[in-house]
């Protein structure tokens, strides 16, 4: 009998019997959305867990990115990474903003802060980096540039739930940070997201924008959107928080097992773990170079044929997609590191219910050629 397929990630699902009482409460109080009691509880609980003061829940991370740009009244050009999920740059287009791609640092897969200044023009209004795979961007360097040129910084922190940098939440950096709570993420609410704000005034504006711009039943102050999280999703988030520490611990165990098994494989490399960062093992990418016996795509196919559904994450680059490849900043010769990484990466499965025998089967397929 063949092994069942293994995917890059699977959502952590708490026991169904623990979720039923939450659903019964929602049915009893008949509040399904619009800042209900579970929504309010989850916002407070996440602030406490993440070590932040102000957080606004959203229906998903993409709407949160779109709203974050609107909240800061961003326009013109925004410097961003070509190595990310489509939502990062799509949120710019939804706001009629021109993305300006800057190459990545291959050692971190993050936007290369050393290249940002040369991309700044009179039309630049903001920088929108992503903490790729949960690895912190060069936040100090980026903030120095932003302060020098009067730019805003919005972090796509979709991978960075619970990550601590130099002892404090990574989400405290920048003007705003945006989280995703999609089912594939470390922490999920089925679908969901959040914006981390630095102060009460910013949170208030964001909360207006995510509710059509309403202040009260008759007062509308902005052309907002419907970005509210439902009570069912918020209840799921509250239950997930009961398990998050064990989820993160198991993900880190799997990462260490991968690293030990693949450390000496010629032609494969892995990202270094920063000593000043407490990560979340949100993804486990490996990078295949010419010294490995198979090409990246051949190894990817070998895993697929064995029921191991790895992912070339992120391939293709955003700058190669039809809606972006005509931009001057999308030229391949300006994004050499990003192209090398995108053509080398495979993210291996990592999620709490992945057992050690499955991890070992994956690594044996990679090692034994």
UniProtKB/TrEMBL annotation:
Pfam families membership: DegT_DnrJ_EryC1 (PF01041)
Keyword NAD set for record: no
Alphabetical keyword list: Aminotransferase, Pyridoxal phosphate, Transferase
UniProt similarity note: Belongs to the DegT/DnrJ/EryC1 family.
Molecular function GO labels: transaminase activity
Gene3D superfamilies noted in UniProt: Type I PLP-dependent aspartate aminotransferase-like (Major domain)
InterPro entries in alphabetical order: DegT/StrS_aminotransferase (IPR000653), PyrdxlP-dep_Trfase (IPR015424), PyrdxlP-dep_Trfase_major (IPR015421)
Identification of the protein by name: DegT/DnrJ/EryC1/StrS family aminotransferase
